[in-house]
Amino acid sequence: MVGFYTKYINCPPSLIAGTNDSYANLTQIADNLDHIKNVCGEDCVGLGSDFDGADTVPEGLEDVSKFPDLIVELLNRGWTDDQIKKLLGENILRVFKGVEDTRDKLSQRLPDESSMPRDSGGEANNTCRTYVHNPPGREQ
Fold first, then answer.
1. pLDDT in tens, 96-108
2. In whole angstroms, what is the distance from residue 100 CA to residue 6 CA?
């Protein structure tokens, strides 16, 4: 899911010269969507706008009324109608169906409460990763 929180979209090394991490734009969102589609495939991409809590969002994508502008940008970049449908909801519906199936298969098993180590992602640059900490008394 591509979130629209500008501090993730425009964090180093993606920072646009002359701006700060509180600025991003629609083109950068499209760039991120292209990158995910090219690396992982059209079945791996979706939108996670962050409109419900981000304090900054990209210029040109201030609210859902701007989604058509993003779609036009992607169509101009060569995205097909089927790829756009996957982006806008088919992918997440497929994923949630799988989540429900897994939930049902594992319903008798207790959840794993362990934390992932910070270096578990294997990223070359994880400066923009958010770390969630366990509450006191539950440290790993």
1. 999 999 999 999 9
2. 31
